[in-house]
Amino acid sequence: MLRFLRSLIPFVFLLAATLAFAQNVTIVSPSATTVSSPVHVVANFSSTAPIDSINVLVDNVAVNQQAEAVTPLDLYVSMPSGNHLLTVNAVQSDGLQLTASRSVDVSAPVMAMSNATTSSTSTSGPSDDTAGVPMTTSGGTTTVSHIEEKSGWYMFPDQGNPDCSSKPNLMSTPSLDGTSGRFSLAPNGQFNNCLWPIKLGKSTATHFKLETYYQLSSPSVSQGVEFSSNKHVGTKWYKFSVQCSYYKGVFSVWDTAGSKWVATNIPCKRPGRNTWEHLVVLTEISNGKAVFQSLTHNGVTYAINKSFYPKTSASAYGFGVHFQMNGDRGGDAYYTWVDNLKFTLW
Fold first, then answer.
1. Mean pLDDT across the chain, nearest whole number?
2. Does the reported pTM lie above 0.85?
3. What's phi and psi for 6, nearest 5 deg?
4. Would 250 be classed as within a structural domain?
5. Domain carrying residue 100
6. Domain end (from 118, 146, 177)
7. How many other CB atoms are there within 10 angstroms of residue 16's CB atom?
8. Exposure winner among 123, 238, 269, 286, fewest CB in 10 A?
9. What are φ and ψ of residue 149, in 5° steps?
10. How many domains does the chain have?
């Protein structure tokens, strides 16, 4: 009997190590060591029981407490300039405590926000208040970077009645810079689509550049993906949508006034698994039209040179982007990871 019990010891240690690995906190954001305030804090939980409570601390001082935990954790925390220790503690329903910490250097002044503000989405769309979307301006050029990591995304089914993520869930893998945004589409029928917009700010710019990387979990079941930017100029709404259709095998651009897709001769082949696609789209507003100038796909640049009239809407000067996933005939579910989504305008 003693010999038998001794033979079980390695398995006991292995089981304990496996459980310890399964129970942890992963701080997905901030992924960089130097950030600006307010700091976007996102954490995922690998647990063996439901998470009952979450506590966020800065330099061992609690700044956000969730007596009824909402996972994944997604909030903004104001921090003064300097080096700080960010800690996320969680307690499972069985009493087990999980924790993770990360050193963070805050370089920018604190924005006027509450101590900890949870990011949120709205099914009716974002408001005109875009103060929470940081952007950089230099020499008349404005750039909004890492859009997939920002709050303000919302979702609505574009076609059918699919189950979709309400916003991109921030993930540490796969990613190119430590944080990607994962969108999910789970169709409830044939050719279900889901679209996620985000409003970014206001501007009088007329030249635009949209750039992004993206990866599909199951490329074989995707009907296609769509990236778009849009700009209001008074009562005119200019929309610059580009769709990669795996069914057609080409990129198409959107005729806003005509409400239809117009195919180009630019090839768009179904990507391989675990492969990052790179897309850059140059557009402008000229002579009262939305002009598609060029598209660069995986390093190859193609001229588009197509233009379309805008639609009439309520007067505004805002701009934003959106992303869309298209479902196939079989109603198969899949993910898309978006990384380094950037919009530049001048």
1. 84
2. no
3. -65, -35
4. yes
5. 23-118
6. 118
7. 10
8. 123
9. -95, -5
10. 2
Contact by Cβ (8 Å): 307, 292 = yes
- Which residue, 118, 152, 178, sits at the end of a domain? 118
Q: Hey, what amino acid is at 77?
A: V
Sign of CA dihedral 298, 303, 304, 309: positive
% residues pLDDT > 90 (the chain): 55
Q: What is the pLDDT of residues 255-277, one digit of tens each?
A: 999 999 999 999 999 999 999 99
Q: Which residue has the tokens 């897309």?
A: 279
Question: 166 with 89, same domain?
Answer: no
Q: From 173, 177, 273, 264, select the one nearest 217 (Cα to Cα).
A: 273
The predicted pLDDT at position 134 comes to 61
Q: Are 196 and 181 in contact (CB under 8 A)?
A: no
Q: Are residues 90 and 216 in the same domain?
A: no
Domain of 250: which CATH number?
2.60.120.200
Report the share of the chain in percent with pLDDT over 70. 83
Q: Are residues 66 and 178 in the same domain?
A: no
Tokens 């589409």, residue located: 185
**146 with 226, same domain?**
yes
